[in-house]
DNA sequence: AGTATCTTGTTATTCTTTTAACAATGCAAA
DNA sequence: TTTGCATTGTTAAAAGAATAACAAGATACT
């Protein structure tokens, strides 16, 4: 896996690699050492050929008779998607969603550390939540620089979204995960990923309506992301 | 817009329509009555041609000189993606994330009503959160049927994910929004949308790493969904 | 009237992603 | 040995989505 080939791994494959790894760790914990593509596929509810194709893209070869060696595959995925020394993450906005994410993600993945949260609420500033210290917004530059935070999760109210994103990027954040409903733009060299819960909910509502109004429809849709 | 043509609206267009509508409502509130495709594009950080293409797909025609009539467009989008009498939503699992979603989505969209939450925690059962009553899991069938709940948001712990999804579908839910990291499968006639926060975070981490390791990269990536 | 400019609507093209097809391999059993 | 079977790895095709290209219309200006 040289740099060139990694570059051309499709986004969707990167996403699935993250998911394969977690699935593999689960089955590995049950004592299994090898796994077939169709077994992975079954767990993920996708097709075996897609699994094989993804693994082909990262250059992993399985055993024709035993399938894939779980441990080796987990390690290879780690080599591809993890940073050697990990990355640090900050949550911007400790409202309900920010708090939930902090709780949910804290300690979930080794190699990704939530090390700070920022909010405007005087009651939260100075406290720690899930072991994550909360600072005021005026501390962003200082903390991001000091801790070398590379990823920012934005969960502030819509009105503050743009300014917060700019602040984070100015402070040195290189990746933004935007959970506000406000579409963003980032400069060169910064990666942006957006997810809008309202859109997702409305999408589900739309297809529920559509499915209900026609029985001929191809019904099962496992859209993800 | 007959049924046939709606059917073939791409998923991504449906998602964008939801976003266009909210953007339009915002600018409409500022007194604007007409808008050009490139203005919508600018707000959404996409291209004007994509906006026009989306609007073409839903059969909306703008004025060649004034652009699109905001109110009429909002109404048309509503006709396409909303159900005439709205739909009811239940949250399964009132942990941090479920609570955040309940808070975040409650009353956010007319036409989509969060009318119930389900949890196993005795302290939560019987209480209301954001005006949403919380019931025990044994009440799912009764409440879903009585309230005619069509959409279920799953935010239970991973171990309970599959069983909860099955319970919801048995009770009559037709759309599932899965926020657990457990990939799901649904029977014919049920729509499934999945979002995995860990995957998103790992994806951002991966591309931050990649961007950092090469300056030649096409840097700006506004992947959404 | 004629020309320039800006916009929409639509077709064509390119790019991305998924799915299908199938050769090659290794083992087991006849 | 040979046949059959289940698997991987890869190429080819199809489907889905974004981008480009451009004709046509409307207005303003000369």
Task: Report on this structure.
2 copies of one chain form a homodimer. With 225 residues, chain A is an alpha/beta fold. Chain A has 2 domains: 3-81, Winged helix-like DNA-binding domain superfamily/Winged helix DNA-binding domain (Arc Repressor Mutant, subunit A); 87-197, NAD(P)-binding Rossmann-like Domain (Rossmann fold). In chain A, 46% of the residues lie in helices and 19% in strands. The first copy, chain A, has a 7-stranded mixed beta sheet, with helices on both faces. A two-stranded antiparallel ribbon of chain A has the order 1-2. In chain A, helix 2 (11-29) runs antiparallel to helix 5 (70-81), helix 3 (37-44) packs across helix 4 (48-57) and helix 7 packs across helix 8. The first copy, chain A, is globular, with a radius of gyration of 20 Å. At the A-B interface, helix 1, helix 2, helix 6, strand 7 and strand 8 of A face helix 1, helix 2, helix 6, strand 7 and strand 8 of B. The structure holds a DNA duplex (30 and 30 nucleotides).
Brief rundown of the structure:
Two copies of one chain form a homodimer. By secondary structure, the first copy, chain A, is of the alpha/beta class. The first copy, chain A, is 46% helix and 19% strand.
Note the main attributes of this structure.
homodimer, alpha/beta, Rossmann fold, 2 domains, 7-stranded mixed sheet, two-stranded antiparallel sheet, 9 helices, globular, disordered C terminus
């Amino acid at each position: 896996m040289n740099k060139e080939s990694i570059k051309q791994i499709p986004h969707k494959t990167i996403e699935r690699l993250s998911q394969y790894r977690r699935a593999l760790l689960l089955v590995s914990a049950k004592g299994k050492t090898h796994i077939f593509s169709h077994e992975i596929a079954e767990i993920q509810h996708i097709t075996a050929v897609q699994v094989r194709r993804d693994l082909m893209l990262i250059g992993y070869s399985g055993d024709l008779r035993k399938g894939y060696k779980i441990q080796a595959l987990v390690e290879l995925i780690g080599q591809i998607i993890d940073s050697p020394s990990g990355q640090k993450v900050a949550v911007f906005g400790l409202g309900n969603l920010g708090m939930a994410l902090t709780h949910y993600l804290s300690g979930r993945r080794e190699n990704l550390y939530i090390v700070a949260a920022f909010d405007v609420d005087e009651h939260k500033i100075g406290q720690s939540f899930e072991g994550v210290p909360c600072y005021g917004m005026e501390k962003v530059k200082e903390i991001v620089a000091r801790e070398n935070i590379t990823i920012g999760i934005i969960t502030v109210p819509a009105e503050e979204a743009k300014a917060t994103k700019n602040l984070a990027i100015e402070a040195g954040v290189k990746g933004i995960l935007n959970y506000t409903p406000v579409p963003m733009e980032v400069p060169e060299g910064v990666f942006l990923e957006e997810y809008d819960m309202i859109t997702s909910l409305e999408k589900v509502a739309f297809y529920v309506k559509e499915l209900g109004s026609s029985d001929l429809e191809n019904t099962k849709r496992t859209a993800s992301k």
